[in-house]
Structures are given as C-alpha cells and as structure tokens.
Amino acid sequence: MRKRSRGDAGMMGAVLTAAALAVTVAGAAAPSASAAGGCWQSGGRWWCNNVSGAPVYGTMGASTQYPDPSRIVGYMNSNPSWFFCKMDGQNWVGGPHPTRWEFTVADNGEYGWMKDTAISSETNPLPNC
Fold first, then answer.
1. Signal sequence span per UniProt (predicted)?
2. What is the DSSP letter of 60?
3. How confident is the model at residue 6 (pLDDT cuts 50, 70, 90)?
C-alpha cells in the first residue's frame, strides 16, 4: 500500500475545486429569451421590464401609427415601464418579434414608440394598438 504525500492531497483538492467550479459555471448560464416573464397589467396599465435608458422614437407625420426610427423623442430610464399597446408590421427591429414596436410615454412626457428589442419581458400579452 502506498502512503499518500502532501502532494497527493493538494492534487485531490485542486481536482475537486475544479469540478465544483465547472458545476457552478454550468448552472449559472443566462436564461433563454423564451424564459422571460410576460408583461403584466396593474393599475390599468401594462408593465414590462425594459432596458434602462432605451430610446423612445417619435412618429412619422401627424399619425401616431408609424414609428420613426430616425427621430428620438426621449428615453425610458425607468424599469419596469408602462406601455399602451403593441404594433406589428412596422420598421424592422429584430429579435423574437422583428417588426414589433410598443407605444408608450418617455420619461420626459413625450409620446412615442419603443423597439421591442429594448423590452426584456415577453410583449405578447399587450393589446394590439
């Protein structure tokens, strides 16, 4: 029978530490987008988690129905924030809903549209505009 040395104990400790670290890192992976919770209704408004500081875009012409991705009217520094409704089939924004925008009020009081990619909550529960 071989007698263990200090080197063997140190090696065993290093192996166990590395194995524990691997399990911890694997368990700390970021949740998928499909795991994001949906927007919720409270106080007569729809609330969603969003990127703090996200731009709110104005509208094209006099109609509020068309977001203008070239004109920022304010920013949404609050999180969560509230939204009136969602609209699909507009300018391309990417993400899971590539042409979806949400109508809201920026923190400076300006009405406008936020890109769906700036909202981390699932926006399907919002009513259509």
1. 1-35
2. S
3. low
Work out the end-to-end distance of the chain between its first and last CA atoms, rounded to an integer number of angstroms: 79
Q: Which residue from 109, 116, 71 is spatially nearest to 90, judged by alpha carbons?
A: 116
Residue with tokens 């499909």: 34
Indicate the helix (H) or strand (E) that contains 81: strand 81-87
73 assigned to some structural domain: yes
Range of the domain at 58: 37-118
What is the dihedral angle through the alpha carbons of 41, 43, 45, 51, rounded to the nearest 10 degrees?
A: -80
Contact 123, 102 (CB under 8 A): yes
Averaged pLDDT for residues 105-121: 95
| Number of residues assigned to the chain | 129
Structural domain includes residue 30: no
Query: Which residue has 């969560």 as its token pair?
Result: 80
Q: Please name the amino acid found at residue 43.
A: G
For residue 9, pLDDT beyond 80: no
pTM tops 0.90, yes or no: no
Beta strands in 3-66 (DSSP E): 40-42, 45-48, 54-59
For residue 127, tell me if it sits in a domain.
no
